[in-house]
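stuck on this one:
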Amino acid sequence: MEIGIVGLPNVGKSTLFNAITKAGAECANYPFCTIEPNVGIVPVPDERLDKLAEIYHPEKVTHAVVKFVDIAGLVKGASKGEGLGNKFLSHIREVDAIVQVVRCFEDSNIVHVDGSINPIRDIETINLELIFADIEAVDKRLEKAVKMARADKKHQVEVDALNKIKATLESEQLAINAKLTDEEQESVNDLFLLTSKPMMYVANVSEEQLKDIAHDEHYQKLKEYATSHNSEAIPLCVKVEEELAALDDAEKDEMLALLGIDESGLDKLIKASYQLLGLISFLTAGEPEVRAWTIVNGTKAPGAAGKIHSDIERGFIKAEVISYDELIECGSLVKAREKGLIRFEGKDYVMKDGDVVLFRFNV
């Protein structure tokens, strides 16, 4: 899974990236500090792996991962090259989803490019730049598609799709709102439009706001906006997250308790990203390795096997499956077998989140 991080300058984007990846991305109080895109690989929080490790004592534990791409802050005119923005939009064309970091905190020492705090205005500024960039991409593709359709009518479906998308974008709506048929959608999937991607929002708030987030005016407006667009707004204090990232587990739990929250904003963000993209994890466990594997919800057993190795999918015979909760309740695979809880599933089995699986195959 790959997530692009966007936002206006000075909203806490690169500081958030620092906290997520502990990679030390450059961060400063002036626009366009992030010249090249920062890329970080982050493990997906999953307590189930730790529990399985207690049972199997594996040589290694491997989490599923998220790849975050942080680009330079965007400003009005970014799609036309203002603030070098257009150069960086290309870096997030192929991500799976976009996270917009939105400033909700007041601080006279940190300049806001538009002079005041207004989350909805900031989102609309970013969206408009993404829309303009997509219009440019659609226009280029449409010109070619029209010529191809004149020579071969099979390309007309692509022309129809592009015209629908262009009309949607020109009405200042995101491409994801264009009503395409399945065939039309397939014809433009390789265009990687920015506004066709699922989008969610991070509200960067102060520590004081975080403690009473239910009554914070800026966050509540952002939350209402996100809900109305079938998305989610995650409140977090970037400064707090940066501090949490530097602590060990015990110290982190202590700090979270003092803040009155049960998990970090970053953990919430990663989990919400999974939900946004309709992803789940299945687990494999043994003495060599305990590991989580990411698949799209609805994937059948052979497709899940292919995530491990194409040969396993090709030679798939069956899957031995037990739910994580049942395995933990039994305490061992041996006891689970004695109780008859191991299921033998075939090619039509739809994987569930938390399935602990052993694939049988022959090639």
Remarks:
- The first helix runs from residue 13 to 21.
- The two ends are 29 Å apart (CA to CA).
- The mean pLDDT is 87.
